């Protein structure tokens, strides 16, 4: 897979100036804070309406209310809108968000300057009335009703209505074959202005789908507008709240109607293929036996108005009465592009509903972008991840009438209806004994009724462009590119690190042979998973964004069909691994991989309604299939990076959802089928048994994010109180499971037990605690955490001497970063060397990833699989993710020890050679 060259960043050789890291990793910026930002993937050819990004600031540097200005590298002022998305405990700004719609897309990026007012420029105007909201960017004007079955009443440009009656549309089938279908429409229930300019306006529309008798599929649509822009970005989210046995969603889309008053031959249709566009008109003038002339043909193909037919003449043809001759040219009314798989789309058109379809040359992967209009104006619309999120479809209808329509289907009506029924009957798993036996053979937790999709969600991003003329192919191509990969501004890895955010990580370090080998493995593993997404076709409406959990080397296939081994569902923090890799490398491919995963895991793998609301599902053949519903999957720790880097409001919704989970805790057995469930659900109506790793880590992440985003003192109190309580427990963090009172926000500190789990430290709690201990002085908890970090990998006699017990914990490589943290905190070189020895010695639980540098890393597989693929035999996503996180944190905490270790190894090798 070809990728842009990775940025050359080094932990020990930081860049110059205010972006540079310091020896402590918390570099102070200039007195007047400023920072450079650059395009993630190079200079875009167009913006998707505008660009929004986040910037972190060291503690105490930027005060609340500080204004910001944005400048090109040449000093040109660019209007920018700024707001705070997180604060430090002292009230200073931790993360700021910024939005702009620059006229000049500076290839070198921009400079953001604090303490300076933004330049004035075009303003977006928002007017609210009881009837709805009107947004005027200065180029387009949108009217959004406050209620009813219309999402957007009209889109105007230059005083002309270009599109109207924008609606959400759907179909519900009563059977999986789709024989009986009922049409539904989205019904708007509320409209809210979330931002009102001056540069950016955001309108949130909420509602549900209805046919007049039944209401279901609640939706949230955010519409984004930028001053001076002709584009609207729409983020559509819905919750699947049906009955899986009886409800089969057979279509879901967004549709606009367009007034058509141009001559039929001046009505243009453009539909994106994999690289270019189908270029057609309602009445074609090219390819006819009689030639209207090169100028006329060129005008139609290029989307310009043709001259009056009476003037058409060709030097090689006899004179033709074109006004009457045109009546004999077929008029095409409808077009359809259906992308039913990741590898192929079909195209066809017809003259009318009573006539047959004519096929059009088809292709592989449509970019999901289309235009309908004339030289007088029209609407471009696109769906991001069109082919990746199949089955999708684009429909143009009634283009030969006075009122055409353009519909983008997020679920194609030509595909089989959506079927979210559980994938097996569980005949032998109706008892607890049968369920336990199933775990032992397929690793699947099964409990009747728990493999339910009711409450999972899906988010799509769309782009609309209201134009005053048919765009050139270059302009259409730029729009399709901006829709598929919205241009993103980011800070450099050096600058991100200098802000001191997201705990223990450092820039890539290749200063010693061992460090260099580790860095090479980190790059190889991330690239491998990016390639696997494509080779294994990890695409589709419910699947795109996730990766698989475990590999079957006999079939040369990921275990997509084996119980608890299939979809990863954030198991062992794959999301975190990708995000930390991006932070330290700035790699665009990694960003997009992590972005797609954040979108997927936060929506599909988590319940947003119903009895499991706020909890996620453990890995399974279906994303919702496992009976084990836990906070470890829905944890805010997996969404925070994307939210702060992009200020994405939908992810902000998800971060809010996972804070309020106490009610679900009371009534849900959130443990696996392995072992006895008895005693984990308490009679206490306000209490819950909390695993101090997989449960509590998610709770902490939710509270921390809530506190820094909103200043919520209840959240900060929960952090302080519960961590203090853990410090008071007789066994400290080694207690493992503690009783939590949801009313008081305290743990029962009298429990004297020791329950160690190898999973306690691998679902984000290490990263969250690292951040919290940098924010708060909690000596009792820090002592308890330090004990756990020291002892987990300690020799058995040390464990027994301190606790009276000994254990041989698994996931040893993953836990070396805990030992590294203790070594750094205690300035203990012996602990650091022990951590590296375990990490490098191959004491991983399954496959020693350190071997990747010593043997052929990737083997090619041919005839044993349906399509040629590559594989790294023995690699599982659990091991890869935890290797990545442990390597990143070890290099940051105890990387300096490697120089001494390498010198010692070189000396020993020299003695052996001598």
Automatic annotation (TrEMBL):
Domain of life per record: Bacteria
Feature: compositional bias, Basic and acidic residues: 1-11
Start and end residues of each PcRGLX/YetA-like central beta-sandwich domain: 124-478
Residues in PcRGLX/YetA-like N-terminal RIFT barrel domain copies: 34-112
Region (Disordered): 1-25
InterPro entries: PcRGLX/YetA-like (IPR045793), PcRGLX/YetA_2nd (IPR048330), PcRGLX/YetA_3rd (IPR048331), PcRGLX_1st (IPR048329)
Domain PcRGLX/YetA-like C-terminal alpha/alpha toroid: 486-898
Pfam families the UniProt entry points to: PcRGLX_1st, PcRGLX_2nd, PcRGLX_3rd
Name the UniProt record assigns to this protein: Tat pathway signal sequence domain protein
